[in-house]
Design a protein that fits this description.
Length: 174
């Protein structure tokens, strides 16, 4: 809701790209003191930068009247959205060379290996650190090699599934 002196609890939502926020509290009494998250703030001036984690961050604004006795506490609960980035920034194989060369927007690749090569590993690196990666259904840490993947003679499809921090957005590389 819009600010009203009698309302003490507020909510706000921000995109994942917003990692900090400031609050500008203005006291109705000229000699009242204001603290934001325990730090004194001049009435009408912006607070220091408040870091926002993904999820909820509660900001407390404590106003004390000139008499030092009457107080009001306001809370603003800010919800920062999870990242929706589900891409790779790098992809490599232990055997074979990707064709075309890796590019974040390209999701389909081929690689050829000698007939004597019976396995490979895949090393995918997520663009966003909190994304998860699965190679052929097994979880792989970003920047780490997958387990050994057996190769049969002929075409072999290896599927890399990247799931964004939001748990909804996905990209599949093959």
């Amino acid at each position: 809701p819009s600010f009203a002196a009698g309302t003490t609890s507020y909510t706000a939502s921000v995109a994942n790209g917003v990692s900090s926020i400031t609050v500008t509290p203005t006291a109705s009494q000229a000699n009242a003191t204001v603290k934001v998250n325990g730090t004194a703030v001049t009435s009408g001036a912006a607070s220091g930068s408040i870091a926002l984690a993904v999820g909820t961050t509660t900001i407390t604004i404590h106003v004390t009247a000139q008499d030092g006795v009457a107080t009001t506490t306001y809370t603003v609960t800010v919800t920062r959205a999870a990242s929706s980035v589900a891409t790779l920034s790098a992809l490599s194989l232990s055997a074979g060379t990707l064709s075309p060369s890796f590019a974040a927007g390209t999701t389909a690749y081929t690689a050829s290996v000698a007939n004597t090569v019976t396995s490979t590993t895949v090393t995918p690196t997520a663009t966003q650190a909190n994304a998860t990666i699965e190679v052929d259904g097994s979880t792989v840490a970003s920047g780490s090699a997958s387990g050994s993947i057996a190769l049969a003679v002929g075409a072999n499809t290896i599927t890399i599934l990247v799931t964004a921090q939001d748990g909804v957005t996905t990209t599949t590389y093959t």
